[in-house]
């Protein structure tokens, strides 16, 4: 086995063990588009365009993954979404 093959094999194993969690935002009949967009920009570091697209997906599909990453990064973001009156959970 060559060094190149061994390195590629080790990289594949590392990629498989990385756990990506998803912060999922759910639709509600209470919050305005502007509130959702502003909250996503402030909480999830979205650009205005990203936040608008996510708000539309949530509106029409019922939910949208708004951020992925390690649980420790998503937990405080999820808490901030809840504090803003939005419905979200980590999967």
TrEMBL record:
<feature type="domain" description="Adaptor protein ClpS core">
    <location>
        <begin position="21"/>
        <end position="85"/>
    </location>
</feature>
<protein>
    <submittedName>
        <fullName>Clp protease ClpS</fullName>
    </submittedName>
</protein>
<dbReference type="Pfam" id="PF02617">
    <property type="entry name" value="ClpS"/>
</dbReference>
<dbReference type="GO" id="GO:0008233">
    <property type="term" value="F:peptidase activity"/>
</dbReference>
<keyword id="KW-0378">Hydrolase</keyword>
<keyword id="KW-0645">Protease</keyword>
<dbReference type="InterPro" id="IPR014719">
    <property type="entry name" value="Ribosomal_bL12_C/ClpS-like"/>
</dbReference>
<dbReference type="InterPro" id="IPR003769">
    <property type="entry name" value="ClpS_core"/>
</dbReference>
<dbReference type="GO" id="GO:0006508">
    <property type="term" value="P:proteolysis"/>
</dbReference>
<dbReference type="GO" id="GO:0030163">
    <property type="term" value="P:protein catabolic process"/>
</dbReference>
